[in-house]
Design goal:
Length: about 90
């Protein structure tokens, strides 16, 4: 998880892993993105220190974005400009 490519061992979930299942990892990341809580607070909610929460966020976020890019879901339609933005020329 510290930025080095994996060469020998495959990913394994340890007994003391704070996010043991893919669902736990997705829930962790989605709640972070939804609330944007401080990493200290978010780490405490999931039973880890701020440094580990930071590592998990930086590992999981690119994986989620890559999965969303390759998914077959259509892109959302752009929102129309709000009335105030039209008056300001934007």
């Amino acid at each position: 998880m510290d930025g080095k490519p994996r060469t020998a061992r495959r990913f394994t979930v340890y007994k003391n892993c704070p996010l043991p299942t893919p669902e736990d990892r997705l829930f962790f990341l989605l709640t972070y993105l939804k609330t944007y809580a401080l990493q200290v607070v978010h780490g405490r909610l999931f039973g880890m220190v701020q440094g580990k929460a930071n590592q998990w966020i930086h590992v999981l976020l690119p994986a989620l974005l890559a999965a969303l890019r390759t998914s077959a879901m259509p892109r959302p339609a752009p929102c129309p400009p709000r009335p105030a933005a039209r008056r300001l020329g934007g």
